[in-house]
Design a protein that fits this description.
six-stranded antiparallel barrel; disordered N terminus; 373 residues; four-stranded mixed sheet; single chain; 6 helices; alpha+beta
Length: 373
């Protein structure tokens, strides 16, 4: 009889490295190298979504069915625009080499200029079973708002990343802007937003004091502040009269100031996960209480009665477990970095690691702010 028994991991004390990372690298900057622009972004800046329809060609019989379909009509219109009239639409019916797709692109909150390129995401929706090997014909992209203006064009060779989702693909740098996208207008007064991983009153106070000290280079107390902390995320900037005619230079000056003492950030213990990117980032000071973890990836298989080994049929065994050093004294807590190291040793998928961390957070065993992006 074969039985499968989950293994319980008991986790106690160990030494932690500076930063624990799993999956896609998403490292926080080294504290000694921080400057203002690494801590903040413009508060009113948002990302921009571009959207459009396109045709993918070159598919090996996995495209849309073309009998009386919108794809066939779109393909015929495209061919007519190129001076290629199709006398008999049935000629296209059996091809299945073309698919109609949605094309999307996300322009980050830093915006973009004419000629800048970004990655396109492609999704089939009209019956295609796979986009592997396809080529996107040139597709116009507009702002994803009613009546959105033309912003760029997408084209290029598709890359299918996930074998379980063959109707989705990407084109790296496949979108080229034809208009400028500037998500924020800077005036005489604007606000900076501390990035979420640094959020806190310590961070906004540090950014403000860094800018004020650098601008005035003086300890005088009666000077009007250039930067003023508003709350745990926002720093309000008032551009001095003398610099309002030279905003680019002023912005370059304040954003490139080296933070005086990054240790004053007093970052709280924090775990940030991103399921889509497959990433976990944790600060070094994350503790966990003694906790048992049972998971289907951690299992021991037992065979009863035990077979007799022979030269022709030797007995081999495979175990999936890992141990952690423990200390019965002290605070009776362990470091999250050791748990993540154990997960890596077991080659546990990042998605399952995130599920366990989420359960530990709900149980109160994870002593950190748990943030899911």
């Amino acid at each position: 009889m074969r039985s499968t028994t989950p293994i319980i991991l008991a986790l106690l004390l160990a030494v932690a490295p500076a930063i624990a990372q799993v999956g896609t690298p998403q490292a926080l900057p080294r504290r000694a190298e921080l400057d203002v622009r690494e801590l903040v972004e413009f508060a009113d800046a948002t990302s921009t979504e571009l959207f459009g329809l396109g045709l993918v060609s070159g598919l090996s019989g996995t495209g849309d069915p073309l009998e009386d379909s919108a794809t066939r009509e779109a393909l015929m219109a495209l061919m007519r625009s190129q001076g290629m009239a199709v006398a008999n639409p049935q000629e296209l019916a059996d091809a299945r080499s073309v698919a109609m797709v949605w094309v999307r692109a996300r322009i980050p909150n830093t915006g973009g200029r004419v000629g800048d390129t970004f990655t396109a995401t492609i999704t089939a929706f009209n019956g295609a079973t796979s986009l592997e090997g396809g080529e996107l014909m040139i597709a116009p992209l507009r702002h994803a708002t009613p009546g959105g203006e033309l912003a760029g064009f997408a084209r290029g060779t598709l890359i299918v990343d996930d074998e379980t989702a063959l109707q989705r693909a990407r084109i790296r740098q496949g979108v080229e802007l034809v208009t400028n996208i500037t998500p924020v207008q800077i005036g005489s007064e604007f606000e900076l937003k501390v990035k979420i991983q640094y959020a806190g009153y310590s961070a906004t106070s540090l950014v403000a004091s860094t800018i004020n000290d650098a601008y005035y280079n003086s300890d005088a107390l009666d000077l009007p502040p250039v930067a003023k902390p508003i709350d745990d995320r926002i720093v309000r900037i008032t551009v001095p009269e003398a610099d309002r005619g030279a905003l680019p230079q002023f912005l370059d000056f304040i954003m490139t100031r080296r933070v005086r003492d990054p240790d004053l950030l007093k970052l709280p213990a924090r775990v940030i996960v991103n399921r889509e990117a497959g990433a976990i980032v944790a600060t070094a000071n994350v503790d966990i209480s003694p906790v048992g973890v049972a998971h289907h990836a951690l299992q021991l298989t037992v065979t009863q009665p035990a077979p007799v080994a022979t030269a022709q049929a030797p007995i081999t065994s495979e175990e999936r477990w890992t141990g952690l050093s423990s200390t019965p004294e002290g605070t009776q807590t362990a470091k999250l970095s050791d748990l993540l190291a154990a997960f890596r040793a077991l080659e546990m998928p990042v998605a399952e690691q995130i599920e366990i961390l989420e359960m530990m957070d709900r149980s109160g065993a994870l002593h950190a702010e748990f943030i899911e992006e």
